[in-house]
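Deliverable D4.2, example record:
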Amino acid sequence: MRIVITNDAVELGKSAGKAAANKIRETITRRDQVNILLATGASQVLNHLTREKDIDWSKVVMFHMDEYIGVDASSPVSFRKYLKERFLEKVSPLKASYLIQGDSEPQKECDRISSIIENHPIDVALVGIGENGHLAFNDPPADFETEKPYIIVELDEQCRKQQYGEGWFKSVSDVPKFAISISIKQVLKAKHIICSVPDSRKAKAVKDCLEQPVSNLFPASILQVHQNCVCFLDRFSADLLSSAITVK
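Output generated by the structure prediction step:
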C-alpha cells in the first residue's frame, strides 16, 4: 500500500480521481474493456472522475459495492440512485453497468450479481473506509474467509449511526439493518485499488486500519496486503497517524 496525504477533501478528490482516470485509460490501451468497482461514499472522487477527458466510457463496465436490502431504486437513500445521478448520468453511456437490486429477494440477487462479476475481473476499484473501519459494508468482525463475491451482511450500530450522521436518514432506527455487500476477498481481487478517506471523523479508523496489524476487527486493514493499493487521505483523516507514515 502507498499512502498519499493531501491538504483537503478537494485536493484529495482531484488526486484520487486523476489516479483512477489514469488507470482506466491505461487499461483501455491494452484491451477493449475495463471493469471498475465504485463506492458511493467518495462523491469528491466521482465528481473529478466524471470531468476527466479522453476516457472512452463505451469500453467501461461498472459494478457497485453495496446496497441496502428492501430499498428500491427511487428511494433518496438508494445507492443505485446515488450512482445514477452522480456518475452514470454525467458520463457518456458505458458498455454496461451492473447495479445491485436491493428490493429483490436478497440471496437470489447475491447469486445474480456474483455470477456476473465472476466473469468481469475488476481492473480498478474505488473504495473508502467507514468510521468503524468497514470496507464496503463488511463491518467488524468482517468475514475474511468467504469466497462468495457478494454476501448479505448485518450493519452494526456504529455503521448505522454513520449513515444517519451523514444526513441520509431521519433517525438511526430508519437505517436498514441489512444490506448486500461485495465481500472482502472480492475487493482484494481488483488489480488496482484506489482508497479515498477524507474528514477528521475517519481519523481513528484510518489509524487503526493503516497502523494496526491486519485484523477482521479493522476490516479495511486488509488493504495493507494489496500490492497495488493507493490510499488518499487529507490532513484531517491523517491527523492521528504516526509521523513515520505521514509522507506524501
